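Entry for adenosine-5'-triphosphate complex. Fields follow.
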Amino acid sequence: MEMEKLVSLCKRRGFMFQSSEIYGGINGFWDYGPLGVELKRNIKEAWWRDMVTAHDELSIADGAPGTYEMTGLDCTIIMHPQVWKVSGHFDLFCDKMVDCRETKGRYRFDQLRGRWVEAKGKRIFVTTLAETEDEAEDLQRRALKAFNLRGKDAEQLAWDGDTVSLDKIEDMTAVFAPEAKEIGTLTEPRDFNLMFPTTIGALAGEEGRAYLRPETAQGIFVNFKNVVDSTRVKIPFGIAQVGKSFRNEITPRNFTFRSREFEQMEIEFFCHPDTSRKWYEYWRDRRMKWYTDLGLSDERLQLRDHAEDELSHYSTGTADIEYAFPFLPEGEYGELEGIAHRGDFDLRSHMEGKLDPNTCPLEVEKGENGKPKYKGSGRDLTYRDDQTNERFTPHVIEPSAGADRAMLAFLCEAYTEDQQPDDKGNMKTRVVMKLHPRIAPIKAAIFPLVKKDGMPEVARDIYRAMKKRFPAFYDEKGAVGRRYRRQDEAGTPYCITVDGQTLDDQTVTVRDRDTLEQWRVKVDDVVEEIGGRVS
Ligand code: ATP
């Protein structure tokens, strides 16, 4: 599937729009349109239901090491600034970036791609901002420009090695930056903190400084004690949260994949250190299954364990659930969700504080040595098992997913084209969004075949009855084939048609979006029939 087709469908049918589009848009921000908002809500609701409300804490879930409880939270976006100092985000939540002295462009060091090329006795690293499929062409165009050559001189360009990211390059003086005229205009890479600062109240300067949260997780850690004290949850248990997060990404790109404002669906699962490894494995597999159950194909999905050198210093295991997005080069995957074994790092930091990460070796970060640079809360965030009387700092397993990335993956997976006869019997390309019925924005569309003979009345009654149960759509305009096509593009799994026969035998036609199978159902049963299939 070509990405442009999906992007144009999303705009045309109202799944997604660029934010502030009438003013030229704002990079890294997206709005969800009438269909998109329903799809995204359904994804978040499916997640909440499957992870929290429908979880049965009396039985052992498939593959789980034991029974466990699940509960939820909804925390603020702006939190006490100390949270981000203690969590490490204030000092460490950075990406390396380079600036172009000539064009003032700013690029992420690990994302700007380019290739070595030699001509006229000079070797340079040419970079490109083009999407994957246009990369080679753009590199050639830029290389010709760098050496002042014409298109017909392309054979003078001696390319060396594959296209790689800029962070593989040591010599910035040899880099030809995007849109620059000179070679060697990029600065050395520098740290760039991704948190959005803001100001609280009328306090100027540092005193009023706060941050928009870059993840929802910290709200859960700082409320750990509140949840334990206000409910009767016993370890092991999980706390879930869905909400907006903000990251000042240097190069937002690939549609909503990397945005500056996005939504996360996160769980912090608290357990005893002795069983944490088993819980980590359980959540890794459980979360992978969630995506396949909702329709992502095994072939495009992978569970990738981080290599030892990729792990955060506190983590004893992290795995990413990744999807082969069509905008990525062949064989490359993009992260949908990370599942991390975080040990007792977070609760301990919020208790004891955090040493200066620049001056202290990480092994002593637990506070055995010297005073913390950032003070913790001083609160006791340990847990006492009332059966065994053991007191311990729980270990945490964190499945952290992005709602927008999940939605993008479901949209990519759903986009399908096939050949079907139109109303006149001519074969036409049909675009159909094969979204899982649980997440489809509209569950059923109801059409009277024609606008007369009492058909609209029957159709409207069915529509009203359906609307009480699930999102439905009524359409009486134009040829019925065209009405079907519009619903196929919106991902509506079932279309119901009231026709001549309905008036004789009180049955309607139900049409399945994917198989195109049609069958008749009694008018009185149709709401129940569709309700059963879409829940
Ligand atoms: P990446 O390496 O792609 O920047 P990350 O490893 O920093 O992602 P986490 O901090 O683990 O991401 O965040 C958890 C989840 O939040 C990600 O798996 C992703 O689904 C989502 N997410 C993170 N950053 C963004 C973003 N800029 N836009 C959309 N979703 C995001």
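NOTE: The first strand starts at residue 16 and ends at 18.
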